[in-house]
Specification:
The protein has 409 residues and is an alpha/beta fold. It contains 16 helices and twelve strands. The chain folds into two domains: 3-51 and 297-408, Aspartate Aminotransferase, domain 1 (Alpha-Beta Complex), CATH 3.90.1150.10; 71-292, 3-Layer(aba) Sandwich (Aspartate Aminotransferase, domain 2), CATH 3.40.640. The chain has helices spanning 3-11, 13-16, 24-35, 54-64, 79-93, 108-120, 136-143, 159-169, 192-205, 244-247, 262-275, 281-292, 296-318, 345-356, 382-397, 400-408; strands at 41-42, 103-106, 126-131, 147-152, 176-180, 208-212, 238-243, 256-260, 331-335, 358-359, 361-362, 373-377.
Length: 409
């Protein structure tokens, strides 16, 4: 621990509860390799590499030319975008959303999740979070001062069994549950029956449900992922976040939304009203055009991820690494090759970077139940994926004991 980090944690209580970013060491190694001129094939971050569809960019340009659009916006979101969100839920999920009381625009789903945690928890309150999980799910709650109880979502665990056990043994009673399907990082999907059981259980116990549906449109099977709000009565206890980042390849635009229970929406709106004036109005106008406009671009983006998934699964298998094909999301959740299982995901990630010039995210960075896996983002083109497979084939064919011994020196 550096002297600055040590002082930081001594000085500020909330910082003490935030461990150093686990991916920082791998990211530093990646940056150093690139500085040396090495070509790193990077599957580490879920950062879409495809351009935003031209008609959305054109709407942004058009709106930005209006001088009035450069004034403060509104933290709740412009009315036109909230109506577009409502229309999206109606046509995609057959769910009616009141754009005035049941929808709010967020600066991406990450901001919304963190600010909702601020709104509904007090220090000492218990929030139930999946493990492994996208980091903002647990750490948004920690920043808010809440306590966590983890729900294992790894292979071999039954979600409802673990949820019931967590509620039974939590003191005080949990105030909320976060769920995420299609899952980041595991890419697991669930059906409407799963959501119905969660809603029934949480309503009975007076627990709010926060659903993260960021990958609703990145799916590869015939049946698209459902929304928890399709369950009758779900809006009594649930809200759902989603984002335009992956659906329309707009990650840097930072635009998302939350829909559902009016009380939770109002709570989020109250907190946001103190923190921001909303996304830049031209971005909101362009987001409206994305939701209301032609959707063939969404199908094209989905198809591109599917093609990359298929190439990765096939080429990595030929290289000696079995990667299960994900049914949805832009990630593969890959078990470590058997020879590296005991070494752990962090050691494997470092070796893959140094020996094969391939960057991956260690599963333990998403929680202790992620150990034994790495996450691969489908953010390189098919040619680069095949090159990664060739690099990995040589790496995996060499002596793992020697590699691990050298890495430990």
């Amino acid at each position: 621990m550096s002297a600055l980090t040590d002082r930081l944690e001594q000085q500020f209580h909330k910082i003490k509860r935030l461990p150093p970013y686990l991916f920082a060491e791998v990211n530093a190694m990646k940056a150093a390799a690139r500085a040396r001129g090495e070509d790193i094939i990077d599957f580490g971050m879920g950062n879409p590499d495809q351009p935003t569809p031209p008609h959305i960019v054109e709407k942004l340009r058009e709106a930005a030319l209006n001088p009035r659009a450069h004034r403060y916006s509104t933290s709740k979101g412009v009315p036109g975008l909230r109506r577009a969100i409502s229309a999206y839920y109606e046509r995609r999920f057959n769910v009616s959303i009141d754009p005035e009381t049941e929808a709010i625009v967020t600066l991406g789903s990450k901001e919304g999740l963190a600010n909702l945690a601020q709104a509904i928890t007090s220090p000492g309150d218990v929030l139930l979070v999946p493990n492994p999980s996208y980091p903002i799910h647990p750490f948004g709650a920690i920043i808010a001062g809440a306590s966590l109880r983890h729900i294992p979502v790894a292979d071999g665990y039954n979600f409802m069994t673990e949820l019931k056990r967590a509620v039974q043994h939590s003191v005080p009673k949990p105030v909320g549950l976060i769920i995420c399907y299609p899952s980041n990082p595991t890419a697991k999907v669930v059906g409407l029956d799963f959501y119905a059981e969660v809603v029934d259980f949480c309503r009975h116990h007076g627990i709010w449900v926060v659903s993260d549906l960021a990958y609703a449109e990145i799916y590869f099977d015939d049946v698209p992922p459902p929304s928890i709000l399709e369950v009758p009565g779900a809006k009594d206890i649930a809200v759902e976040f989603t984002s335009l980042s992956k659906t329309y390849s707009m990650p840097g635009w930072r635009i998302g939304f939350c829909c559902g229970n009016p009380l939770l929406i109002a709570a989020l709106a109250r907190v946001k009203s103190y923190l921001d004036y909303g996304a830049f109005t031209p971005i909101q106008v362009a987001a409206t055009a994305a939701l209301n406009g032609p959707q063939d671009c969404v199908a094209e983006i989905r198809q591109r991820y599917k093609e990359r998934r298929d190439v990765l699964v096939e080429s990595f298998a030929a290289a000696g690494w079995h990667v299960p094909p994900p049914p949805a999301s832009m990630f593969c959740w890959a078990p470590l090759p058997p020879a590296y299982k005991d070494a752990g995901s962090m050691a494997f990630a470092k070796l893959a970077l140094t020996e094969a010039k391939v960057a991956v995210s260690p599963g333990v960075g998403f929680g202790e139940y992620g150990e034994g896996y790495v996450r691969l983002g489908l953010v390189e083109n098919r040619h680069r994926i095949r090159q990664a497979a060739r690099n990995l084939k040589s790496f995996l064919a060499s002596d793992p004991e020697r590699q691990l011994a050298q890495a430990a020196e």
